[in-house]
Amino acid sequence: MLVYGQGLGQPAVIYNGEGDIVETLPLEAAASWKGEPPAWYYGLAADVWGDSRDEVILAGSRGACIYANARPLEVPTLYNETLYPGM
User: Whole-model pTM?
Assistant: First the structure.
């Protein structure tokens, strides 16, 4: 579960099914905004890279960050398989 908007300057977090925080995702401001007070941002999940895994996008008035899952893809897919057996 992605949770964001907990207050100015608070990072977005991802919780697992047992309520434990598994990732903390801060919004890194653009270089021109360094040193300025934090701003509000929005968070969403989307498959940006097309690998069937969602990335987290944090976007606000002072920049945007895309956090990708760096772990190896555990579920093999037939997306690039040339000999698809069908059903």
Answer: 0.67
Radius of gyration of the chain (CA): 17
- The Cα 69–Cα 34 span in angstroms is 26
Whether 76 is covered by a domain: the verdict is no
72 located within any domain: no
Burial of 41-80, coded b for 16+ CB within 10 Å and e otherwise, reads bebeeeeeeeeeeebbbbebebbebebeeeeeeeeeeeee
Which residues are 13's β-sheet partners?
A: 3, 24
**pLDDT reading at 68 higher than 70:** yes
Which amino acid, residue 1?
M
